[in-house]
Amino acid sequence: MSELFSLSIVVPVWMESASIVATLEALQPLRTAGHELIVVDAGSTDGTAKLAQPLADRVVQSGKGRAVQMNAGASVARPAVKGNLLLFLHADTRLPSSALSELSKFVHSDNAWGRFDVRLSGRGVMFRVIAWFMNQRSRLTGICTGDQALFVRREVFEALGGFEPLPIMEDIEFTRRLGLISRPFCIREPVTTDSRRWEQGGTWRTIFLMWRLRWRYWRGDSPENLVHAYRSDVRNGKE
């Protein structure tokens, strides 16, 4: 199947000097294939941007917040002669080696957007269980999170006005709007996301925190309240 499409990978970063080189080195085969890599730094003071410079096509500075950063990256993505895709990749997530061939299938589909399945880097059985539930949730609801490497046709992204500049839940809000256009294209070959969030915060505690925040979001609580609750929980072990 032909891979005649242009891919712009947008990686939002902040204070990622310890891992940014490994993250971007893993994406170099895609640059070699002619695709574009854009790093959007939110004012890191640890040298993240400098380390990223030789490994990216563009390093952009923006305000803080993944929504703001991802919109900034999309706004400078180069125009394409043929199909143009935007892929938003967290700095702690790795694409599978088959990413381009799988995305080529998406290009030839009628879907407006899609996401990958996910697996977590941790070796414990619990991490496989968490990933299974994340993937099943996405299949049932059509909603995905940033850990699943969201990709979208550029014209659709622009028509929807990109991400709402929310401090949290920007991925869920955006995929809810995308879901009004089409179901997501699911790539079952998973991305691998670092499990450190669960390891550092405690597996069960992190699970309950994220589900509690999502439940409050679905009930209409504001993202500003949710991000305050998230930060309070991370700092103090309680809201």
From TrEMBL:
It is found in: Cell membrane. InterPro entries: Glyco_trans_2-like, Trfase_2_rSAM/seldom_assoc. Keywords: Cell membrane, Glycosyltransferase, Membrane, Transferase. Its main location: membrane. Residues 8-157 form the Glycosyltransferase 2-like domain. PANTHER family: GLYCOSYLTRANSFERASE, GLYCOSYLTRANSFERASE 2-LIKE DOMAIN-CONTAINING PROTEIN. This is TIGR04283 family arsenosugar biosynthesis glycosyltransferase. It comes from Marinobacter salexigens.
